[in-house]
Write a structure and sequence with these properties.
Keywords: Glycosidase, Hydrolase. It holds the Pfam family Glyco_hydro_1. The protein is α/β, with parallel strands linked by helices. The chain is 39% helix and 15% strand. The chain is built from 15 helices and twelve strands. Helix 3 runs parallel beside helix 5. The longest helix is centred in the middle third of the chain and has 26 residues, at 200-225. The termini are close together.
Length: 476
């Protein structure tokens, strides 16, 4: 791998999210977010959580991994690992507890002042996601979430505070985490609607439009406040291979990537809706509230780069497969098992070649920089005597994906800013609320029931990644 070169300025990093790591859900003026009412369980159970807190239930995000109080020690670990950047998010409800206030909560801002300054003092660049699955619960209960256009102004008020407060300190921003996840799981954006609602498609389309407008206006605002800001979108990506050589399976696989991912990056990068989206709206006679001014904003507020998550791939068929054992799911996307790939306990199939394909497709289609801000392997870890954790399975996964990343850069000519593996420190799972689905290179002593000391221990992958960064990808 010594011939696999990365640029001198390549940003090796790690990624976490405020709602999954900070904890401290009700102190220093923080309001309730949609994740604060989520219990432990499968993703459908977490989505069915009610606004009332049940004292008999365990809410893992309330404590997280207590990053709110332990961030200074955690940043020391990140510096020791050699990170050049750290991707995290800001909790909307720390800044605006309800979401619709005129003035921000200074105690919330003070926390991020210290967090960002600590990162910079350790020569770690902050990469900030403005909204990462943590919408204020009040905005859901009063306004119905992102299906309501009023949220655009609330969000922009929030963005304005962040852009001004951290101007010159934060260069890399992303407007929404995995924005296309809202299409698959509207509850992620606080939208309450059942699949059998006759207006289900219309509500989803209106919700996505409102998010696109908010993102585009935030990009324009961020550039006006500081022209050095680099503001990107962020999409979840996966590959769906045709199940057979049947041309209909090929069409289904193309739909899988085009309608599941590229439709969203098209709007962010090209500044307009693709023709098949317009046709879908016409064909279904959807009555959407879309103005010429909003379309102009989408055209003007195009992003500087594409942030993306990639974990696994699947198989796509044009026919419904009734064999339940053949279905897999990963990161809010569904498909069929691939017999050529291995899956982890949660059905996510490791596929570094699919990673390279995604990077090719996005790089060649848009010709703007990409930023891989999530990639990793969830697995249960065993702690041996002396707090030793051998996680060769994680090292193997990351090694193969970094190799694919190098090939995309050197063989395919894709422009990539950096790489921030997901959950560099163990954290709460967004989909299940579990701790046992661990991604980190630093172990956190906490189990699925909330028991543990919260002590941190370095895994074998910590030292492996340390060498990768030190050698700038030369030693894998």
């Amino acid at each position: 791998m010594k011939d696999k070169k990365f640029s001198d300025g390549f940003l090796w990093g790690g990624a976490m999210a405020a709602n999954q790591c900070e904890g401290a859900y009700d102190i220093d003026g923080k309001g309730m977010s949609i994740m604060d009412i989520m219990t432990v369980g499968n993703s459908s159970k977490r989505r069915r959580a009610t606004p009332e807190i049940d004292p008999q239930e365990y809410y893992p995000n309330h404590r997280g991994i207590d990053f709110y109080h332990k961030y200074k020690d955690d940043i020391k670990l990140l510096k020791e690992m050699g990170l050049k950047c750290f991707r995290t998010s800001i909790a909307w409800t720390r800044i605006f507890p309800k979401g619709d206030e005129a003035s921000p909560n200074e105690k919330g801002l003070a926390f991020y002042d210290e967090l960002i300054d600590t990162l910079l003092a350790n020569n770690i660049k902050p990469v900030i996601t403005i909204s990462h699955y943590e919408m204020p619960l009040y905005l859901v209960e009063k306004y119905g979430g992102w299906k309501n256009k009023k949220l655009i102004d609330f969000y922009l008020n929030y963005c304005r505070v962040l852009f001004k407060r951290y101007s010159g300190k934060v260069k890399y921003w992303m407007t929404f985490n995995e924005i296309n996840s809202t299409w698959f799981v509207p509850a992620i954006s606080g939208v309450k609607i059942s699949n059998d609602d006759p207006k289900y498609l219309q509500v989803k389309c209106q919700t996505m439009h409102n998010l696109f407008v908010a993102s585009a206006r935030a990009v324009q605002m961020g550039h006006e406040i500081n022209s050095n800001n680099q503001i990107g979108c962020m999409v979840l990506t996966t590959v769906g291979y045709p199940k057979t050589t049947n041309p209909k399976d090929a069409l289904a696989a193309d739909d899988y990537i085009t309608r599941g991912t590229l439709a969203f990056t098209d709007v962010h990068v090209r500044g307009h809706y693709p023709s098949f989206v317009k046709r879908m709206v016409q064909k279904n006679h959807l009555e959407l509230d879309i103005t010429d001014e909003e379309l102009l904003d989408i055209q003007t507020g195009v992003v500087d780069y594409i942030g993306l998550s990639y974990y696994s791939s699947s198989v796509v068929s044009s026919e419904i497969d009734k064999n339940a054992d053949s279905s897999i799911g990963g990161n809010f996307s569904m498909g069929l098992k691939n017999p050529y790939l291995k899956a982890n306990e949660w059905g996510w199939q490791s596929d570094p070649d699919g990673f390279r394909l995604i990077l090719r497709w996005l790089g060649q289609r848009y010709e703007i920089p990409l930023f891989v801000v999530e990639n990793g392997y969830g697995h249960e870890d065993e702690v041996l005597s002396g707090h030793i954790i051998h996680d060769d399975y994680r090292i193997d996964y990351l090694r193969k994906h970094v190799n694919a990343l190098a090939e995309a850069i050197n063989e395919d000519g894709v422009d990539i800013i950096g790489y921030t593996p997901w959950g560099c420190i163990d954290l709460i799972s967004a989909s299940t609320g579990e701790m046992k689905k661990r991604y980190g290179m630093v172990y956190v002593d906490l189990d699925n029931t909330g028991k543990g000391t919260l002590s941190r221990y370095k895994k074998d992958s910590f030292y492996w990644y340390q060498k990768v960064i030190e050698s700038n990808g030369g030693e894998l």
